[in-house]
Structures are given as structure tokens and as C-alpha cells.
Design goal:
homodimer, 348 residues, alpha/beta, Aspartate Aminotransferase, domain 2, two-stranded parallel sheet, 13 helices, 39% helix
Chain lengths: 348, 348
């Protein structure tokens, strides 16, 4: 018998995107917000006291829950906080799935889902999207205890309508987890579903729309019965005092948040248009990145050439994505640097 | 089929100690350090930039790993960070245990171990300590994939010698996890064991000795092969930028740390002596709390009376602890308040 469980020995773990610290890098690879978080966040950090550091945090992070509840039009009891959406995904897998209770999701999608299934020793039922990334009908017919839809989807940027999600929630027997990490950049979200469905769990992130990837903060929205079960699985003091204060300050500053979102949406339209002019196929994106393909060139080659020029984008060598690049929407200046370099790299 | 796994439905979750926010409470219930963290921590927090908040953290928390490695005389590859010791315990259970791979530990001990076993659907083999809290011989003979020894033990304050731990590591087939959350207040630790044993995993906390319960930071020490397996189980960005900076600043300030530890040890001896004079039985403690029993009075009753006077201690209504109180070592002033009130509460 080895020290580790067999499924852990065989697991590969998740590989995050490169995180270089050199300032000169144009970093369009991990979907960080190109703009800083609300100034209220630094203000709050400067007011943290030794006494707050010395004491255990509020186990339920009520300051954040109350703010997030108000903004989402739900009760605080419908909210649970985590160290990023990733911790909440991990908790969901542990709560709902095991070797007899599979998870299902449409692919290609966020590769962490398959990694978590492996770590949890549960079967992952992967159903392929069609070419237009429509929700596969088969997804509602699996025996999954947990069905995950990343919406908007990463790395495709595509979105499933609220109406389709209602049908899915209604048809499946298990839990529907809607991973809304990128929903701040879309026109609609699925919060309303939790009013009618006790099997719907929505996950949000403060890393993308709110520019707070560094503090690792996310939250779940669901009916209190589902939240209560998930609360048993989380560590009692899972999120810390400083992150709670920072996340609460950011979510309360909706004016600043909305202004940044609009800037990114505008740049997304511009970048999409410009990439198309360079010969790329770019599906309409509802997130803060685009998925671009140029039939004349290998994605891996473009990736390498950009890397040599200190421009980082993301390349996933997996089925369906072999010739595509995922490019985070940067500032206007960053997007120009990318476009100018692509013009030089791609022969005419 | 319910939404949740059966073991999760049946689990109770962990109940943390009360966390009141009123300043007038004498809080001796959750083993927080009574002294603030190193001033270097607030200094570092004041220097956090928007750019650091906007970007994902360093996945490996190398700044902290390097500092902790130097202080513990090991290589950085022997260190892994987590959101408190609790997250590292959770990761260990997920890595080593399942329904065919039990966990074992001596009781009474930190009640989270049994909670995590339940959440992980693995059998918990509980072996009782004797009256003097010596390591039970039976612990080395279980079929456990993971054997946990809390050392110093909570809530007893007792310690198992390094020599005994060497024997245990040698005798068992699985992994030996030494939970050293309270080791900063003891004379010795088990770091040396990782040089000879590839099955030893040590867990440390920044919450107690370093006064940083609010930032949720802990770390594991083990041979790189064990660390590499555990790294696959953790979220890729599990600890955040602000906590990494704060924890690194605190661990680098060893002078401040040692001075606070000495103060607490001195108060521990004084409190032990004074409680004994009040008729309590108080075993020698190697942690920042004492376990006190007064055969003339019910612990639950003393607990309630202290609570009415805004003095919080911990009472665990479980076998072996029904008539004992766990009391955190406070400042000299806090300990005096406790003692003065006990004198009033206990009839003469």
C-alpha cells in the first residue's frame, strides 16, 4: 500500500498559467482584470489593526455576505464565501460526488473540473459542445450527482441562456452548479434560478470583475438548505479577516466596478474586430477574454513567438483547442501591443 | 438519492469557539495569542499595492517557504503552505484516506480530526489516552493509512517525546502526521524526523505562537516526495498574496516571536500554580492553554458562571472532558481577571 490513495497518485494536479513578476511582460494569460481594484480596498487594508490579525476571523464572513446578498437580491443565508471560486468548486465536489456519484460537464471547459473529479475519485462524464458551443442536450440525461456549467464558459467565452439553464435545472436529478466566474462581463446571470430551484448552486469570483485575484475570494449563492450542507464541508474559518474586508469593500463599490466592466467590454469588441481583420476566427465572447483561431498558422507557434516578445497568452494543448489561443482582454495599450506584434508575426 | 453524499448529510461539521466582538470580553476560549503580531506585519500590509491585489498570488508562496525553510533548517521544497493548519489537515485526509484507508488518533484530542474523517467518509480509529495522556501503544498497531498525533495535544496540553515519536514513525506502515499547532510553546519539536522518515508530515500554524489567527496561515514540513503529492491536492492558488506577505514578515521576526513565547510560558506557570491553589487539578501544559478540573464543582457550571461575567473559556462535553475546562493563557491582566472571578465563584 502506497502512502497516497491511488487516485491521488495518478492525478496530475492543475497547472495554472505562468505568473512572471517582471513588469515589462504583457500578461494576457490568466484573465486578471487589467484595472486595479476599487481604491476602497487599499483604504480598508490600511485600517486593519493588530487586534484583527490576532483574533480568528468571523467564521461566516457576515460583512461580505450581507453586502453580496443586497447586491444580488437574496438573503445573507443564501451566500457562502470561499478562497476563490476554486475552493467552492472543491467543496461542492466533496459534498456531492464520490466513486458512486459522478460529475458531468460539457467540454472544452475549465480544466479544473476534471482535475477535481480525479482528486475526489469520482467519474467525470464529459459531453462535447457542438461547434457553436451550444449546451449539449445529452447533459441533462447523465446520471450525474453534480452537473457543472461554466457560464460564460472558459475558454470559449460562449454563454448559455437563462431559459436553457432553467430547463437543465428542471430536467436533472442532481445539483446544477453554474460557475459564473466570468458573469460580470455578460448581459445576464442565473441568480434568479435559486428562487425556484433548490438544486441550483451559483459560484461567483472576486478575481475577474472586481480585480482581486490576489486575495482569493469567491462566493456561492443557493437556497439556505444547500448552503447549510456546504457549510459543514468548509473549514470553519476558511476565509481570513483581511480578505473579507477587502472583498466587502470592493463589492460595495458598484460604481467603480461597473465603469471597469464597461471599459473591458468595449475593448473586447475592439479586440475581436481587430483580430478578425488579421484573419482570426473569433466567436463572440461574453467574458474578459476571447478564443482566437487562425487557420493559416499553428496556435502553438503564435504562442511561442508572442512569448519570445514578452507577451503571454494561453494555449491549451487539449482536444478541441489545439489550434486556438485564449487571450485576456487587457487595457487599450496592452491590446495594441498584442495586435502590433501579431501583425509582425503573421506573414502577409 | 439526496443531493448530498450520505456521509455529508450525516456529518455535523466542526463547531468553533464563540467569537464575540465586544471589547470587554476576557477571551480565553480559542487559544489566540494575547499579544499582537510583530509590528513588521502591519508595516507589510501598509505596503501592499493595487497591482499585487489585481494579480494572482504566487502558487507556491515561495517568500514564506524560503523563510520557514531557513528557520526550520530544511529545504524550501520540504514546505507547503495552507489557509491555517486546518486546510492542511483537510488536504492530508483527502490525500491519504478514504472508505478503505482509515485514520487513527489518540483521544481526547482536537475534535476536527473526527469531523474530517466523517466528511471524507473514512473510518476513524480512536485509541484512548491513559490518565497521564501517554501515547497509547495500540496506536502503532492500527491499519491506519494516516496516524495523527497532536503534539502538544489539545486540549490536554500534554506532550509526547521525540523519541516516542521516532518509534511510532518507524512502526506504522502509513503516514504519521504530527500536528504541531502548539509546538511554539513547547521545549522540543519533531522537525528532525523528516530527515529520516519519508512518512512523517509535520503541520505548523501561524495562528498561535505568531499571533496571526486572523490571516489563516499554516504550513506543512515533510520530505519533497510527500510534499509533491500534497501539492496536487491543494488549490493551485490556495493562499493569498496578503497572507503570504503577513506570514513571511511574522516568521522573519524571530526576536519578537521568542519574547512573546517566553511571556506566555511564564504566565502559564503562574496560572497553573494559582489554579492549583484554588483546588484545581492542572496537568503540566506544553501549550498556550491549561486543562483544569476541580473535583468539587461541575465544569459546565463554572463555565456558565464565567460566561455571565464576560469571561470565555472552553468546555467540551465529550467523554474524558466532561468535568474539565480548557483555559487559554492570556495576558497577566486577563489571567488575574479570571483568577479573581474564580475566587468569587467557587464557595470557600
Amino acid at each position: 500500500m502506497g502512502y497516497f490513495r491511488k487516485n491521488i497518485e495518478q492525478a496530475e494536479g492543475y497547472t495554472p498559467g505562468l505568473q512572471p513578476h517582471r513588469a515589462e511582460v504583457t500578461k494576457l494569460n490568466t484573465n486578471e482584470n487589467p484595472y486595479p481594484p476599487s481604491p476602497a480596498v487599499l483604504e480598508v487594508l490600511s485600517q486593519i489593526t493588530s487586534e484583527q490579525l490576532r483574533r480568528y476571523p468571523d467564521p461566516n464572513a457576515d460583512e461580505f455576505r450581507q453586502a453580496a446578498a443586497r447586491i444580488n437580491g437574496v438573503e445573507p443565508g443564501c451566500i457562502m464565501c470561499g478562497n476563490g471560486g476554486d475552493e467552492l468548486l472543491k467543496i461542492a465536489l466533496q459534498a456531492f460526488c464520490d466513486n458512486k456519484r459522478p460529475v458531468s460537464f460539457a467540454v472544452p471547459t475549465y480544466t479544473l473540473y476534471a482535475v477535481l473529479a480525479k482528486l475526489n475519485n469520482c467519474k467525470a462524464i464529459e459531453v462535447a459542445f457542438d461547434k457553436e458551443f451550444n449546451l449539449p442536450a445529452k447533459l441533462s440525461a447523465t446520471p450525474a450527482a453534480l452537473t457543472i456549467v461554466c457560464n460564460p464558459n472558459a475558454p470559449t467565452g460562449s454563454i448559455v441562456s437563462r431559459e436553457e439553464m432553467v430547463c437543465l435545472a428542471d430536467e436533472i436529478k442532481g445539483v446544477l452548479l453554474v460557475d459564473e466566474a466570468y458573469v460580470d462581463f455578460a448581459q445576464d446571470n442565473c441568480t434568479e434560478l435559486i428562487k425556484d430551484f433548490k438544486n441550483v448552486l451559483i459560484i461567483r469570483s472576486m478575481s475577474k470583475g472586481y480585480g482581486l485575484a490576489g486575495i482569493r475570494f469567491g462566493y456561492a449563492i443557493a437556497q439556505p438548505s444547500l448552503i447549510a450542507g456546504l457549510m459543514k464541508v468548509k473549514d470553519s474559518y476558511n476565509v481570513n479577516t483581511v480578505s473579507i474586508a477587502a472583498a466587502a469593500a470592493a463589492i460595495k463599490d458598484q460604481k467603480y466596478f461597473r465603469r471597469n466592466i464597461e471599459k473591458t467590454k468595449k475593448e473586447r469588441e475592439r479586440l475581436t474586430e481587430q483580430l478578425r481583420q488579421l484573419g482570426f476566427t473569433v466567436p463572440k465572447s461574453h467574458a474578459n477574454f476571447v478564443l482566437a483561431e487562425n487557420s493559416g498558422y499553428k496556435a502553438a507557434e503564435i504562442y511561442d513567438k508572442l512569448l519570445q516578445r514578452d507577451i503571454l497568452v494561453r494555449f491549451f494543448p487539449v482536444p478541441g483547442l489545439e489550434n486556438k489561443l485564449r487571450i485576456t482582454i487587457g487595457t487599450s495599450r496592452q491590446n495594441d501591443i498584442l495586435l502590433d506584434n501579431l501583425k509582425e508575426i503573421l506573414p502577409h
